[in-house]
Amino acid sequence: MNPLSINLVLAVVWAALSGAFTLASLLVGFVVGYVTLWAMQPLFPSSRYCSKLIGLVKLALFFLWELLVSSLKVAWSVVTPLRYSKPGVISVPLDVMTDTELTVLGNLISLTPGSLSLDVSEDRKHLVVHAMFIEDPEDFRRETKRGMEHRVREALR
């Protein structure tokens, strides 16, 4: 059994022992199971389950923060008479390797208001992005690489 299936079994056992199969008891059981597996990491030397789950949570929190900030920027740009947006198309160099990493990165960028993934270069080394707010192209590339791309690699590798 892999650690994820063990964690799911521990969540169901927790819910059964608590006497109620509710979403809340299953979530508490999942967290208790995760903490138990984290404490027992030496028994699973080849598994990166605990570190991957932490990376996925960090990616989700980062994305939610970016979603909030970019939504506010786009809304402010729409409701104010002054034009703060400086739209443009920019090529961002990539360090992601797998199809999954590339797909997740492109979709997260597209889901963020004010930006859209347009294309991937033939050699898969650059992602072409349309963004609504590009003050400095190098700064935009740096933010994308240090922010979204870094967290995608951290979560999926």
Summarize, please.
The protein has two domains: 41 residues; 107 residues, no CATH class.
SSE layout and pairing:
Layout: H1 3-18, H2 23-39, H3 49-79, E1 88-93, H4 99-111, E2 115-120, E3 126-131, H5 137-156
Strand arrangement across the biggest beta sheet: 1-3-2
Total number of distinct structural domains: 2
Helix content: 55-70%
How many helices? The count is 5
User: H/E order of the elements?
Assistant: HHHEHEEH
Structural class: mainly alpha
Mean pLDDT: 90
Instruction: Give the CA-CA distance, first to last residue.
Output: 21 Å
- Radius of gyration of CA atoms, rounded to a whole number: 20 Å
Described by the principal axes of the CA atoms, the overall outline is elongated
Range of strand content: 5-15%
Poorly predicted runs: none
Q: How many beta-strand elements?
A: 3
Give a short account of the largest sheet.
3 strands, antiparallel
Description:
This protein has helices at residues 3-18, 23-39, 49-79, 99-111, 137-156; strands at residues 88-93, 115-120, 126-131. By secondary structure, the chain is mainly α. The protein folds into two domains: 3-43; 50-156, no CATH class. Helix 1 (3-18) packs across helix 2 (23-39), helix 3 packs antiparallel against helix 5 and helix 4 crosses helix 5. It is elongated, with a radius of gyration of 20 Å. The longest helix has 31 residues, at 49-79. It has a three-stranded antiparallel β-sheet. A hairpin with a 5-residue loop joins strand 2 and strand 3 (126-131).
